[in-house]
Amino acid sequence: MAAFFDLDKTIIATSSSAAFSKPFLSGGLLTRGDVLRSAYAYFLFHVGSADAVQTERMRQHLSELSTGWDAAKVRRIVTETLHEHIDPVVYAEAVDLIAQHHEQGHDVVVVSASSTELVEPIAAMLGADHVVATRMEIVDGRFTGRIDFYAYGENKAAAMREIAAARGYDLQRCYAYSDSMTDAPMLAAVGHGFAVNPDRALRRMAVENGWGTLSFSRPVALRPRLRPGPTAAVATLVVAAVVGWLVWRGARRRRE
Description:
Layout: E1 2-6, H1 16-19, H2 21-26, H3 32-47, H4 52-66, H5 71-85, E2 90-91, H6 92-103, E3 107-115, H7 116-126, E4 130-139, E5 142-149, H8 154-167, E6 175-178, H9 184-188, E7 192-196, H10 200-209, E8 212-214, E9 219-220, H11 222-226, H12 232-255
Parallel strand pairs: 1-3, 1-6, 3-4, 6-7, 7-8
Antiparallel strand pairs: 2-9, 4-5
Helix pairs in contact: 3-4, 5-7, 6-12
């Protein structure tokens, strides 16, 4: 079995791209104008309808922004600044839930629209087993601006089905967690979908689809937590919420 986790606003309390904007600026990959335009683009994307037009605009923005970047430099900056910029914004509840899935023998898969160069180091730090992320084309060591695979919306669900087929996961027994309406296909692809910190619209969709809901609210430094293991109290609360939802859904299905 496997548990599929969205990254931004689900495992971490911010956007992974935004988290690295400062070191990318210092490293010469971004200008101050790029940072402002990116912030505005992400704002419009998240408050908009996230339809095909919005999605294509964000995709185009990613292409234009990264064109010409040295891929090795991107990886180096992410690796060197990972703990400084990601550690403080990891949700304690997500870390504990990841640990619980591992204890039950489940693979953990991070599924993110951010690029592979950003997602893989974060996933490795979290102890995840596999990654699904946006893949940017690289030629002669530099990003061309072309996106080979955009891990967004239905593409996430398609990638999950591919991994399940390759690794023998029964998706009806698997779990998925996300905070975003755009990840509805991801949550619907498994038997146990959970909406994290849902807004009113996502909460309504969760009710309609029989998904559970979870509240993550405690960003904490990750490294101290990795040494002693997850906090038992928080882990118990999160797991109790998951188990409670499964019991409720089972009872509901029996009534139907």
